[in-house]
Amino acid sequence: MEIWIARHADPDYENDSITEKGEREAKLLAERLAKYEFDFVYCSPLGRAQKTASYYLEKTGKTAETLEWLREFEGNVTVDGEKSICWDRKPDYWTRIDDYYSYDKWLDVPLMKNGDVKRHYLKVQNGIDELMAKHGYVKNGRIYDVVDSNHKRILLFCHFGVEAVMLSRIFSVSPMILWHNFVALPTSVTRLASGEREKGKAIFNAIQFGDLSHLYAGGEEPSFQARFCECFEDDTRH
To answer: What are the residues whose beta carbons fall under 8 Å from the beta carbon of 170, sequence distance 6 or more?
Structure first.
C-alpha cells in the first residue's frame, strides 16, 4: 500500500485559503497527481487544504472524504502566561533536552505537559491508526500487522504540522525531529510504501519526502513558507 501526503499550496492564512501563487502551485500539483490512480482521497477540513485539493478533484472527477483530524495540528503550550503552538520552539531550547528526541518521552517534557499537546497528538494518532487499519495495516508496537496485503494508493491533502505528527506515529519517532529538521514546503508530496519483508508484518518506507518536482517542471519557484532564514543576517523569516 502507498500513502501520498500533499501539503496545501502557498497559504493565505488570514482568509484560510491560498494565494495567487498558491493557485499556480495547486494546478501544477493537480497535473502531477492526475497521472496516478488513487483508490481513496482524504482532505483536511481547513480552507487552504480544501482549495488545494479542489484543482485535483475537478481535473479527475474524484471526490474526497473530509477528515476532521487532518486539520493543522493544534497542540498548544503555555509560555509566560501565553499560549503558543507546541512546535514553535527555538533550537537552543529544545535540542538541549534529550527527551525531545524520544518517541516515548517527548510528551512528558514539562513544557509539553502544561498544555493540550497530548490530547491533540492522540487525536491524530487514533485517526491515522484507524485509517491504516481500515485499509489493512494495524499498528502493533513499532510495526504493523498486515491484515490485508494490498496495492492501494491513498492520497491525503493536509498540512505540514499534522503531516509530521502522522509520520511520527507511522515511524515511531518523536515529531520534534520532523517538525524542526525536515520541511515539507507548500504542495510538496511525501510518498510512503509498505515494506513486507516478513509475512504478516510491515513497516512503511519514505520513498519521497517533500518532493516538489512538479513545481520545477512547471517553472514555479517553491514557496518559502515553513522555512527560516539560511543566515541570521538575511532579510527573511527568523
So the answer is: 128, 132, 192, 204
Q: What stretches of 61-174 show up as alpha helix (H) in DSSP?
A: 91-94, 110-113, 117-134, 160-171
Contact in structure between 160 and 8 (CB atoms under 8 Å): no
pTM of the model: 0.96
pLDDT in tens, 216-231: 999 999 999 989 888 9
3-state secondary structure of 192: strand
Determine the pLDDT at residue 203: 98
d(C-alpha 174, C-alpha 152), whole Å: 27
CB atoms within 10 A of CB 23: 16
Residue 190, strand partner residues: 5
- Reported as a single tens digit per residue, the pLDDT across 133-164 is 999 999 999 999 999 999 999 999 999 999 99
Cell numbers describing residue 100:
525531545
Map residue 233 onto helix, strand or coil. coil
Rounded CA gap, 73 and 75, in Å?
6
Measured between alpha carbons, how far is 28 from 67 in angstroms, rounded to an integer?
24
